[in-house]
Amino acid sequence: MQDLNIRISGKAGRITFTRPKALNALSHDMALEIQAALDAWRDDPAVSLVVIDAEGDRAFCAGGDIAAVYRAGISGDHSVGRAFFRDEYLLNATIAEYPKPIVAFMQGFIMGGGVGIGGHAQQRIVGDSSQIAMPESGIGLIPDVGGTWLLAHAPGRIGEYLALTGGRMGAGDAIHAGFADVYLPEARWPELIRTLEQTGDFNRIKGETPPESPLATRDLSPFGQPDLKSITAALEEAGDESTLKAIRRNSPLSMAAGLRMVREARRDPSIRESLAREFRFTYRATEFADFLEGVRAQIIDKDRNPNWQADPSPENLDRMLAPLGEHEMKWETGK
Description:
six-stranded mixed sheet, three-stranded parallel sheet, 44% helix, globular
């Protein structure tokens, strides 16, 4: 398809995002194409490893292409979003559990759905332009695509901080927080990709000393408070206006859900449990959360003035995260 270039080059399966004008946003069809390629290469002896990269210097993948989900949801059709999220999460699990090394070269913006593709690879390479974030609470969603799993395993309270604020991480922060593994200047990426194609040897990846991580020394103790209200109070007491500004612009329900889900994900034995919990929220998101209003304000009308209406109470949060019965995520054995 024109949005992806999928091929085998040397000993490497190659997946390249080819819609840079759209910041390589991930559509439903693209997710299915990537899944099909990974399934085909799983037992192919010609493929020793997989390389995922993207055209353009602005973005590896700046998120999911959710315009179709929005249009369907506004018309009362919630099946489009549910199908997209389900297939996307199946792909996220495939990448995280893939039996062959997957190497992701992530430049520019890596957000939301882009984290779901690159963030679960076995080797995640970032450079000086890399900006990684999970900003879903700003569109009335939650850190999904396995984002709660990654945030749960970040050091200290970084997971809570990023889930609530949608803060961006450069290369140093991304490596410190566990969203990336290797720093390498982007000018050196083509040479490394050629080496991987020629050798199929995952061990040929050698990085350089990453930039410092501001997050590593930042006081995030307020994010250890038990709930959003007490976190906000602690930030107010600390006079942290920049963080408060970020929190005040996001959906209260989304932040309450993200906070609970990151903390629950710390007890999950695998990414599958975290993805299944995320799906419970996103399955209901176009119907009962702030998602449609958030997309309208940030992406469709771009007035940046969402009117958040969803109930952030613990009781409603329980409803949003309740098991889905026959609609729960189902996993194919061996996939």
